Amino acid sequence: MISNAENVLFFGIGTSGILAQYGARQFSNFGVNSVYNIDLFYPLPQKIHNDTNQIAIMLSVSGETPEIVNRAISLKAEGFHVISITNNNYSTLAKVSELNFSYNIKPEIIKETLNITTQIPVIFILESLARNAKD
Predict the structure, then answer these.
(1) pTM for the full predicted model
(2) Cα–Cα distance between 40 and 124 in angstroms, integer?
């Protein structure tokens, strides 16, 4: 799917946003036209909407972040292929995605709201996908 894509757009907020940026860079290193967006309210350029065979890779630990889920649903309605990377394959984001990579690590929360769940599996998934994108 990725090797045939015109563009690959990465989306995430917080730590997932940083990893979205990393993913876009890795894919670009391997010759895949990639960009990232950590501002989910930022409008996408019209050219991207008009191109065919677009992929959105959505990153969310919980898979329940409303802004990410809503953006995934809207992009899917616009004809994007949606791939997600989450910590829970039963999450809303995983369910609305065509393809989900789930790493199912025990969530770690400190100070009641800070999610410090390891992101090493996400880096592995992103690098594996990037390295195999143009095979």
Answers:
(1) 0.91
(2) 24
